[in-house]
Amino acid sequence: MKRIGVAASRCAKDDLVLYNVLVVLFSLLLSLFIFLISAFAVVLGIVLTAWVIRGFATIDLGTALFRYSLAGLAATTGVINLVAILLNIKIKR
């Protein structure tokens, strides 16, 4: 999480507003990347488990299992993103 601040400070070059904008931008991009990778792994795991149990029948991706698991993953990623932003944002120098 501290590397977000290091990367933002190198790009901002003593501009506090730009630093804060870059911290938010970098953390949002990183959390989106982490969410997409994790969501793919969760969906793949659920689909493979369902295929093993049921055979190769079609699977409804709108079931409660998918919705709740991805909603929990989104909430977890969002909380980690907020912690990263709060740790790296600077109010005054």
Describe the secondary-structure layout.
Layout (H helix, E strand, L loop, with lengths): L1 H11 L3 H39 L9 H25 L5
Q: Could you explain the architecture of this structure?
A:
Helices cover 81% and strands 0% of the residues. The chain has 93 residues and is mainly alpha-helical. The chain has one domain. It is elongated and about 60 Å long. The mean pLDDT is 87.
Task: Provide a quick synopsis of the model.
It is built from 3 helices and no strands. With 93 residues, the chain is mainly alpha-helical.
Instruction: Please tally the helical runs, counting DSSP H or I stretches of 4 or more residues.
Output: 3
Strand content of the residues, in percent?
under 5%
Runs in which pLDDT lies below 50 for 5 or more consecutive residues are: none
Query: Overall mean pLDDT score?
Result: 87
Shape: elongated
What is the count of distinct domains?
Answer: 1
List keywords for this structure.
93 residues; mainly alpha; 3 helices; single chain; 81% helix
